[in-house]
Fold:
Amino acid sequence: MGKDLITLKNICKAYDGTTILDDLNLSIYENSFVTLLGPSGCGKTTTLRIIGGFEKPDKGQVIFDGQDITDLAPNKRQLNTVFQKYALFTHMSVAENIAFGLKIKNKSDNYIKDKIKYALKLVNLEGYENRSPESLSGGQQQRIAIARAIVNEPKVLLLDEPLGALDLKMRQDMQYELKRLKEELGITFIYVTHDQEEALTMSDHIVVMNQGYIQQEGSPETIYNEPENAFVADFIGDSNIIRSTMIRDELVEILGAKFSCVDKGFGNNKPVDVVIRPEDIELVAPEDGTLTGVVTDLTFKGVHYEMDVETCGRELLVHSTKLSAVGTKVGIKVDPFNIQIMNVPVSEDEEAISETV
Structure:
C-alpha cells in the first residue's frame, strides 16, 4: 500500500438534528481505487462531499497529503468531482466543456489544445471536439465529464454514483474504462455507489457504510468472503445468515446438525451468526448430506440455477450449475472453509450499528 493521502479524523455531520456521520475515521491511500458502498442515507455521499469541500463537518478534520484542508474551498483542493448528473454545458462544444477549468486557470491556448487532445484520446472519444454534448449518448457524456475532470490533473478524482443513469451494458463497459483510466493516470479514485457488484468489480478497497458508521473496510475479497457482521454479509451479495451455536473451536451446530468449520475463539456452546454463501452449499444425495432438505423453488439465471431448499423449517438459498428439480429431496453439504462465524450483537446499540439479522 502507498502512503496516506487523505485522512478523515472524527468526522461528525448532522442535518436538522439527524446524525448522518458519527465520529467517522478513514484513511485513503495514494493511487488506490476506494469505493464507499452502502444503502441510501448511509452517509457515503456526505463523506464524499466533505472530502470535496462541498460540505463542512460539524466536527473533525480532513487531512490531505499532511495538510489540514477542512476549511479549504473546493476549487483550492487538488481534486475534481464527477457527478451522476454530468453537468455538461449544453451551449458549449465538447472541447469547450473540457477546456472550461483550464481557461479559468488562464492556461495558454496551446496547452489547452494539447490537453483536450490528450483527454479525448484517454476516454476513447478522439474526433468529438466539435460535437454538442446533447448529440452524445449517456455513456459518451459521462466520458466527457471524466475528461473535463482529468485535464485539471487532480491528485484525486471523486465520483458520485457516476454510472447510475446508464443502462446495464453501458455501465459494465464504463466500469472497465474507469479501472483502465485509474491505472493509466496513476491517481486516487474515490467512488460512491450502492451497487455491490460495481464495488466488487472496480475497487482495490471497499468501505461498507450504514447509518453513519463504517461497518467494515478491506479488499473486495475480504469483504465478500469474511464479512464482519450480518449487515455486511447481507448487503454484499446473497447470503444465508443463520443463528447457530458454536459448540467449541472448529465445530458449530447449524439447524440442529453439527458442521466442521475453521473458526476459533468464540467460546463453547455460545450463540453465533453463521454466514454461508449460496454458491458454497453443495447439494448431494440425501444420505451424503449433513442436513437434508427439499427443493421448493427453482430459477434459471443463465450461469447457474438459483434454488430454495427447505430444511428444518428454514429456506436456504442455493446457487449451483447442477439442476435439482422442485420437489427433489437433497442432502446439504458445506466445506468447513466456507462457513463464516460471526459474533451475535451483545447490546441494542451494537445491534443498531450492525443491523444483525
Notes: The domain at 239-354 is CATH 2.40.50.140 (OB fold (Dihydrolipoamide Acetyltransferase, E2P)). The longest strand covers residues 4-15. The chain has two domains: 4-225, 239-354.
